[in-house]
Amino acid sequence: MAINNTNTVTTLAGVDSTSSYIRIEAKLLPNGRASIKYFVYPSKAEYTAGASPVTHAYDEIYNRFLTEVLLPSEITIDNLHDLAIAELVARGMDNTKLAKVDLV
């Protein structure tokens, strides 16, 4: 599961990044919540080549978060992407620059 991001995000070192490939890890918890964690790569090609994530280069915009989820029987990969994107938008990103990819 991943998101293509074309928002400009500034790293902690002050460098602007104009695109990134964000892998999503979702854990469904027994209390009806989900923990979603982001792993940021400069590009899908770098992820595919085995590069390490660069999530640590950014501030809290990519911190993991907990959220309420739908009934377990209604959870889909698509829903989890929507939750991850909604959280990034709440943190200040432009929704039109976030695209769902790799829905497997």
Name a few traits of the molecule.
104 residues, five-stranded antiparallel sheet
Structure report:
By secondary structure, this protein is α+β, with helices and mostly antiparallel strands. Helices cover 18% and strands 33% of the residues. The chain is built from two helices and seven strands. It has helices at 44-48, 77-90, and strands at 2-5, 9-10, 16-17, 20-28, 33-41, 65-68, 98-101. It has a five-stranded antiparallel beta sheet. It has a two-stranded antiparallel sheet with strand order 2-3. β2 (9-10) and β3 (16-17) form a beta hairpin. The longest helix is centred in the last third of the chain and has 14 residues, at 77-90. The protein is globular, with a radius of gyration of 14 Å. The model has no long low-confidence stretch (mean pLDDT 87).
Secondary-structure map:
Elements (H helix, E strand, L loop, with lengths): L1 E4 L3 E2 L5 E2 L2 E9 L4 E9 L2 H5 L16 E4 L8 H14 L7 E4 L3
Antiparallel strand pairs: 1-4, 1-7, 2-3, 4-5, 5-6
Which residue ranges are poorly predicted, with pLDDT under 50 across at least 5 consecutive positions? none
Quickly give the structural class.
alpha+beta
Q: How many strands appear in the DSSP assignment?
A: 7
Mean pLDDT across residues: 87
Give, in spatial order, the strands making up the sheet with the most strands. Answer: 6-5-4-1-7
The global form is: globular
Largest sheet: 5 strands, antiparallel
User: How far apart lie the N and C ends?
Assistant: 6 Å
Order of helices and strands: EEEEEHEHE
Helical segment count? 2
User: Percent of residues in helical segments?
Assistant: 10-25%
Radius of gyration: 14 Å
Strand content of the residues, in percent? 25-35%
